[in-house]
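Researcher: Next sequence.
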Amino acid sequence: MSIPLLPRPLTRCVLASCLLAALAGCAALPEPTGSEVQAQALAGTAVPPNWSAEASAAQVDAGWLTSFNDPVLSQLVHEALASNPDLHMAAARLEQSNAQLEIAQAQLKPGITLLGRTGSKPVADLVPLLSGGMFRLSWEVDLWGRMRYARNAAAAARDATSADYRYAQQSLAAAVARAWFVSSEARQQQELAIRMVQSARALAELAADRQRIGAGSQVDVVAARANLNAYQDAEQQVALAHRQCLRALELLLGRYPSAELVASSTLTPLPGPVPAGIPMDVLNRRPDLIGAERRVAAAFDKVGEAKAAKLPSFSISAGYGRLSNEVLETRNVLEQRISSIAATAAAPLYTGGALSGQLALRTAEQKEAVADYARRALTALGEVEGALSAEHILAERELILEEAAAAAGEALDLEKIAWSVGKSDLRAVNQRQLAAGAVEVALLSVRRERLNRRVDLHLALGGSFDAPTPGVVGVPGGSGQ
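Model: Next structure:
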């Protein structure tokens, strides 16, 4: 059965309501801008124009992952982006936010329902014999912006979740890089531990030989064996740490933690210095701070929604259709076209304090969102300052340990020469070897720490880990953007 269109009087009424809603659309106040949120949240904090630590003020570069020139690391990062469960959860939360925004947007539109009925019952029951169809339209006109505030809050929450997803991508890339560097260091430390055990074993055998020929004592033998046991225990600890590092990295990749991943036998060389921009750039670039700023905007909209809920509401409803009623088979069919329109106004007079309490709750949530932004902003600035300071201190430590390693190697060479001409014994040589190995372990640890701190600096600055593809427009939530 075909349903005719709305009659002209009803159409004019609906159009008038649309005009009324359009005129009322300016009721929702604009959200605070990012600069306004920063000014309010950091009102008591003087952000300097430049970093305290020495750094280049040039614009932060994109694509820090490729700066390490490690194809294996790049492959592992993209594997983690595709398979990491935590990132999948973040993506699902973004989908939920998009759905919430669609729901909020739908509240601003009229609802149209098609009703239809047919059937037969005993003659004594005449009402169920009605059959036909009807269009029903219902619409709450957003006079005071309550539903627009709700829509804007959902949009701001969606933007915050999108920023959280981008930051989760960057954090995952940084975590994979750090785990890869630690695994490589652990493998090299394991190799060093094996060499140190070999040197300690040779020293213990030498002590036993010296005792047999009367040149040594039982005390020397026991001390050498204890020294060997200590280094053997250290080797086992390093081997366990290496396997644990591999398992941690495999979990980030979404793999089964079997410790079968093969770490690099050498550490990735540290790239050159990176530009750090200025402090205010970090507040506008880091995704987690962008998300915090959007949560302030969402809280602002929820306050506006709570205020508008205390004002009267206005809604309209209209219906049009055709019904028929066959009472008896021998009776002519009675067909009737029906239409209706109604307007409803409702003003809350007394709600027991529920609306005032809701407004107070939303206001407190807005204050919390502003304070959370301030906390995150100060933490972000502190992370950059800490990473920049670590760059300089670790560079100085590396120079010191390089000199110590060179001196220890030179002392070992001199000891070997003295042993070859009979001025020293093999025990002194082994002791020099153990000392040189300890310095090498410390130097390796500092070099790995410099790599990790460089990753921390990139993450703190908010730079993307993937360079943008030329000619391709980025979309929200894109990898590393």
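Model: The chain is about 60% helix and 10% strand. The longest helix spans residues 146-212.
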